[in-house]
Amino acid sequence: MANEEDDPIIQEIDVFLARSLLEKLYLFQYPIRPASMTYDDVTHLSAKIKPKQQKVELEMAIDTLNPNYCRSKGEQIALNVDGTCTDETSTYSSKLMDKQTFCSSQAASNVSRYAAAVYKKGELHLTPLHGILQLRPSFTYLDKADAKHREREAANEGGDSSQDEAEDDVKQITVRFSRPETEQARQRRVQSYEFLQKRQAEEHWVHLHYYGLKDSRSEHERQYLFSQGHGLAENTELIKSPSEYLMMLMPPSVEEENDKPMAPSNVLSMAQLRTLPLADQIKILMKNVKVMPFANLLGLLGSGADATAVLRCVQQVALLVQGNWVVKSDVLYPKDTSSPHSGVPAEVLCRGRDFVMWKFTQDRWVVRKEVAAVTKLCPEDVKDFLEHMSVARINKGWEFMLPYDEDFVKKHPDIVQRQQMLWMGIQAKLEKVYNLLKEHLTPKKQEAQSAHPLLVSGEQRVNMAKAKVKQNYGQLEKELQKQKAEMKAHDTSARTDVPSIRIKEEPVSVEEPMDTSAHEGLNNGLVNGLHPAQGSMDPVNGHLPGGCIDRVAQELKAFVSSTFKKQFVLTLSELKRLFNLHLASLPPGHTLFSGISDKMLQDMVLDTGCKQILVPFPPQTAASPDELKVYALWEAGDTYDQHRQVLLEIFSKNYRVRRNVIQNQLSQECGEDLNKQEVDRVLKVSFCSLW
């Protein structure tokens, strides 16, 4: 007891359980690299996996330019393996051992006790591991060298015994018939080592694509290591109420469970529902109702439900659409299921339903033919998606079934903002999967909508506008009086020190904030339920305070500098995408949420030592204007600065250049005779984000 009192608790850390990479996260244990064999950090030649066996095979390039590398031994190994001739089947096409293969073995059979942890800003995020694999060097190339040696010896022996080949060899053939296999013999054969090896060899390899540590895709996937409820409160998977803990410690007896009347498997009474944990209650309700306002959800859960806990749980199983909660697609279509109409797997159904939900975040109306044309799904599946969340209107299309919940949006702006970030990530995935055009991204304005209001009447709109103007006028008046008092006190103190200072007033240019959502909002000026004026920082008379501008500039400069140090060349479109991911990782109320325009972002890029590369793209290109603007860090302070500057000069004259031209230009400008592998390394290091 005395020792426990002398050892007090110094700090308490909140623990979150991240489930985004559940059953997908593996831990690779690499061997210690010897000094004579240094691997290139940016070059993984190939990777493949057998998912059922959890077997991985990696092929990594060896840095042959390292002073510890023995070139003579590398050439001898390549000669022993491939011989003197080189063709497509050769293991080492460069006549040098320039790569090494690693094979995996399971380090532990039971990995349920292990998890990957990420510590950030006083929070510990845990993701369960699906497997732990130890990578060890594979020496199959030695077997190939032995086979080559045996073939050469057989060829030499065959030349000496040419006279024996002239004689006709007559051999006796014995024919045997196998007996019928008994059940015991079959079981022994199935459990034999040869049979298991054959089964493992029959499984096909799945080829993978490797992304480096500094690649933008790796940074995007790394965000999944953080819990979705990050920054709000504790994860519901790690906390239990006292009654839930008591239920886990003392479960009800079997006799009490048998006394309960039997009900159909698809029917659950409200009394039975409220005996379940809160997260399960919300999941069952959302799965059955599919679309529900937050107020109705609280009413169904009972008066004792905590609104904060309900908000935390509902975000795990639903998404916000027009201020209402719509159940997630993966809840309705679990993994390894398929469509009852067409047999399409659950992953395809989830993408199609997410597209329908995303369309309703843009507009109140969706056309069924447009959804079918984009998703390529059968009409029955598309009809099911629409019936989950909308109502058919004759000659108009499908209208979202619930009115816009403005009360929830006003009360919970932080939740709305976080949901907007999630929808931006879903939109980016849908654009890649379906190759969406601008006509799909821009909401259509229908004449019927403009002529007949959908939600409220004209008189109600006028009254709401008047009330809002009065409210805003009162707030602005208070802010103005407060600002005048502060300026008056400041002027009084400043007159005693500097009486003759004249301040020149310059006109302030009004910049439009950067469109971080890549699309317009609803017809009434809402972006997924978020008013543009409802930001984390309220401007005074349309302009931010001076101290706030300095903080925003410092934060923006830090982001731009760190981004270009990782990826030296970026288009404006890619930079804005990375900025949106950065915003999604920030807590609510951060200074960067005050609004960053395209001009501010581009000016900050130029101020941090970057240059705009005027690449002469062809006039008929289908790229967007943001994709045509290319910025590069001119001096990074590494060994590739000169090579990178030569490459940027080359691409400023032509947007498409052959590799041999680049190799010759680099050799002339840098005074080095670079081979093909060295040119590839320079290109990959310099343009890793565009590779």
Give the gist of this structure.
By secondary structure, the chain is an alpha+beta fold. The protein contains 29 helices and 18 strands.
Provide structural commentary.
The chain is an alpha+beta fold and about 700 residues long. Among the domains are: about 15-60 and about 100-150 and about 190-205; about 270-435, no CATH class; about 545-685, no CATH class. The chain is about 45% helix and about 15% strand. It has 29 helices and 18 strands. It has a six-stranded mixed sheet with strand order 2-8-5-4-3-9. Helix 11 (about 280-290) packs across helix 13 (about 305-315), helix 19 runs antiparallel to helix 24 and helix 23 packs across helix 25 (about 600-605). The chain is globular and about 105 Å long. Mean pLDDT is about 75; it is low at about 230-235, about 255-265, about 445-455 and about 495-545.
Mean pLDDT: 75
Query: Radius of gyration, Cα only, in angstroms?
Result: 33 Å
Residue ranges: pLDDT <50 for 5 or more in a row?
231-235, 255-265, 445-455, 494-543
Largest sheet: 6 strands, mixed
Shape: globular
Q: Level of helix content?
A: 40-55%
How would you summarize the topology of this molecule?
Layout: H1 2-6, E1 14-17, E2 26-29, E3 39-50, E4 55-62, H2 71-82, E5 99-106, E6 115-120, E7 123-128, E8 131-137, H3 140-160, H4 162-165, H5 183-190, H6 193-202, E9 206-208, H7 216-222, H8 242-249, H9 254-259, H10 270-273, H11 278-289, E10 291-292, H12 294-301, H13 307-317, E11 318-321, E12 324-327, H14 329-332, H15 346-362, E13 365-366, H16 368-375, H17 379-389, E14 390-393, E15 397-400, H18 406-411, H19 413-434, H20 438-441, H21 447-451, H22 458-495, H23 546-566, E16 569-571, H24 572-584, H25 598-607, E17 610-613, H26 625-628, E18 630-633, H27 641-651, H28 659-670, H29 676-686
Parallel strand pairs: 1-7, 2-8
Antiparallel strand pairs: 3-4, 3-9, 4-5, 5-8, 6-7, 10-12, 11-12, 13-15, 14-15, 16-18, 17-18
Helix pairs in contact: 2-3, 11-13, 15-17, 15-19, 19-24, 23-25, 27-28
